Amino acid sequence: MITISNLTKSFGTFDAVKSVDIEVPQGAFLVLVGPSGCGKSTMLRMLAGLETPTAGTISFAGNTVSDGDRGWTIEPAERNTGLVFQSYALWPHMTVSGNVEWPLKVGKMPAAERKTRVAEVLKLLGIEKLAARYPNEISGGQQQRVAIARMIAPRPGILLFDEPLSNLDAKLRVEMRTELLRVHRATGATSIYVTHDQVEAMTMASHVAVLKDGEVEQFGTPQDLVAEPRTAFVATFVGTPPANLIPVAPQGVATTFDGNVLPINLNLSGPAQAMYRPETLGVSAEPTPKSLALEFAEASPVAGRIMITGTKGDMRLTAVVDSAPKFTPGDTVHFTVPETPDALFAPNGERMP
Ligand SMILES: Nc1ncnc2c1ncn2[C@@H]1O[C@H](COP(=O)(O)OP(=O)(O)OP(=O)(O)O)[C@@H](O)[C@H]1O
């Protein structure tokens, strides 16, 4: 179990991470996700012991490893964590097996044991044939495997990943996701993984923490976040594709949806944001009494269905439907809105009861 309590990191007067409280169960795969600059890497660096928190504590299995209130942190090498970055940072003058063996040498493991362990992890990552090559003689994907092998060789109890797949092409990323999860399970370690790719987050995670401006907007399983987003930000950040938000306001017994009056009564007392999942919206070429006209933007096939996106000003709606008329860019597409939204959020983004 990793316990993060009131964790804060300030750079001068700027708080990059603010009062974060999270408990990560043993063996979990926690993904930290959020837009650029929200504090993901800073969180991971504190977990790795590369930064001392300004306030709050981190403990691993009940032992405090960083204490911002006292201003100390246990050194990276002493805290049973392994870290892999986006850039693989392999030692160019060492072979693949030399790279993987290095942390074991530093850890003073006897030579015979090192040899067995290196062979074991190279096999686990499927790179045993590359053992004698140098980093410049293998591909980017293979280099990333070597970096992961090097990280897990000393058997750390906690694996930390900072956007490890972002340098790889799309196909390799998908393959490596599966591979990483296999390694995670094989080691039995608790993993914490930073990404700004929500698809990666939702497919890999046992737990997700959505960060915004240094704070945790929501922490839970991927299913929890999609089913019950606590804020409008989370609603538009998770799910494939993410949920739609439409600005709404009461108009007698009707409601204005982004300025258009529709005969739907949402019983509102003031302005709000209505959330509709893409599969609840319909599309048609002709208007209906409960539809909104947007400009067609794109259509793409998803798992045997069709995803249609339209835009109007700042609003972007996505519907996932079984079939749709053929639209071309510039056409008007009418999105039909169901009577009941999937959720309502106040203008400040908080979920309404
Ligand atoms: N050493 C530093 N000094 C001052 N500000 C910093 C420092 N490190 C990070 N920051 C700031 O803290 C905020 C959080 O940075 P961080 O790198 O944790 O974000 P991130 O979510 O990982 O972003 P990205 O997805 O772009 O990597 C940013 O606004 C960044 O500019």
TrEMBL record:
<dbReference type="InterPro" id="IPR017871">
    <property type="entry name" value="ABC_transporter-like_CS"/>
</dbReference>
<comment type="similarity">
    <text>Belongs to the ABC transporter superfamily.</text>
</comment>
<keyword id="KW-0067">ATP-binding</keyword>
<protein>
    <submittedName>
        <fullName>Carbohydrate ABC transporter ATP-binding protein, CUT1 family</fullName>
    </submittedName>
</protein>
<dbReference type="GO" id="GO:0005524">
    <property type="term" value="F:ATP binding"/>
</dbReference>
<dbReference type="InterPro" id="IPR003593">
    <property type="entry name" value="AAA+_ATPase"/>
</dbReference>
<dbReference type="GO" id="GO:0016887">
    <property type="term" value="F:ATP hydrolysis activity"/>
</dbReference>
<feature type="domain" description="ABC transporter">
    <location>
        <begin position="2"/>
        <end position="238"/>
    </location>
</feature>
<dbReference type="InterPro" id="IPR008995">
    <property type="entry name" value="Mo/tungstate-bd_C_term_dom"/>
</dbReference>
<dbReference type="GO" id="GO:0015408">
    <property type="term" value="F:ABC-type ferric iron transporter activity"/>
</dbReference>
<keyword id="KW-1003">Cell membrane</keyword>
<dbReference type="Pfam" id="PF00005">
    <property type="entry name" value="ABC_tran"/>
</dbReference>
<dbReference type="InterPro" id="IPR027417">
    <property type="entry name" value="P-loop_NTPase"/>
</dbReference>
<keyword id="KW-0472">Membrane</keyword>
<keyword id="KW-0547">Nucleotide-binding</keyword>
<dbReference type="GO" id="GO:0055052">
    <property type="term" value="C:ATP-binding cassette (ABC) transporter complex, substrate-binding subunit-containing"/>
</dbReference>
<keyword id="KW-0813">Transport</keyword>
<dbReference type="InterPro" id="IPR015853">
    <property type="entry name" value="ABC_transpr_FbpC"/>
</dbReference>
<dbReference type="InterPro" id="IPR003439">
    <property type="entry name" value="ABC_transporter-like_ATP-bd"/>
</dbReference>
<dbReference type="InterPro" id="IPR047641">
    <property type="entry name" value="ABC_transpr_MalK/UgpC-like"/>
</dbReference>
